[in-house]
Amino acid sequence: MRIDILTLFPQMFNSLNFSVLKKAQDNKILNINLINIRDFSKDIHKKCDDYPYGGGAGMVMMAQPIYDAFKSINSTNCKVIFASPRGKVFTQQMAKELAKEEHLIFLCGHYEGVDERAIELLCAEEVSIGDYVLTGGELPAMVMIDSIARNIKGVICEQSLKEESFSNGLLEYPQYTRPEIFEGKKVPEILLSGHHKNIELWRQEQSKKITKKNRPDLY
Ligand code: ADE
Looking at residue 137, what DSSP letter applies? Predict the structure, then answer.
């Protein structure tokens, strides 16, 4: 999958170059390309924002640098996502669907907002990562990219995807590793039994219990 990111702060995306996402890029499963919107400003001071028409607090990102940055991308089959608290809320299901795309473009807003015409011209779909407001779209874009990338075939082991939270509508069961006793706390006996059927049943029970307690809306 190719991912282009339109942002005023490309350095923020350095954190995509670690762990699973780094490996996916090294293995050529994922190709992440950063585009600095400021490079497309026609202003001598490279200004990319201005006061809002109609008044109000803060600055608005101008349409021109965003549109020109977008046009510099050569693609016929791409989906554009605008990270915005105004968008529909991102879910695991969306991550799975978007993982099937060939080319995604993320537009990251900053300051008070983005000129509406840029959003319209890019035919961008507005997506939020939750009901809270962040200072910009960079962190939300990284959250979505991480979640989408791990659903692309070959990025992580398929069994892990099957067993994790949300995969069967429930949250994940508790996990343990060595040592058997830590600070006086013992690993549940059933997990040491080697009885696969009983272990599966115990895990299902635990998943239900955790979902009921933490997310009754999912149960
Ligand atoms: N930009 C600012 N807040 C956001 C949010 N909650 N989701 C997506 N983009 C955002």
Answer: S
- Ligand 1 centre and the CA of 14: distance in Å? 19
Q: Which residue's alpha carbon is nearest to atom 4 within ligand 1?
A: 85
The pLDDT value recorded for residue 218 is: 93
Of 140, 156, 172, which one is at a domain's C-terminal end? 156
Count up the domains in the chain and report the number. 2
* CB 110, CB 57: distance < 8 Å: no
Report how far apart, in Å, the C-alpha atoms of 128 and of each of 62, 122, 202 are. 21, 17, 35
> Is residue 109 located within the same domain as residue 149?
yes
Distance CA 56, CA 51 (A): 8
Average pLDDT across each block of 10 residues of the chain; the chain has 219 residues. List them in order. 98 98 98 98 98 96 98 94 98 97 97 94 98 97 98 93 88 97 98 98 97 96
CB atoms within 10 A of CB 208: 14
Pocket (CB within 6 angstroms of ligand 1)? 83-85, 128-130, 132-134, 137, 140
Are 119 and 208 contained in the same domain? no
User: Which domain range does residue 173 map to?
Assistant: 163-214
Radius of gyration of the chain (CA): 22
Residue nearest to atom 2 of ligand 1 (CA): 134
The pLDDT, as a whole number, for residue 93 is 96
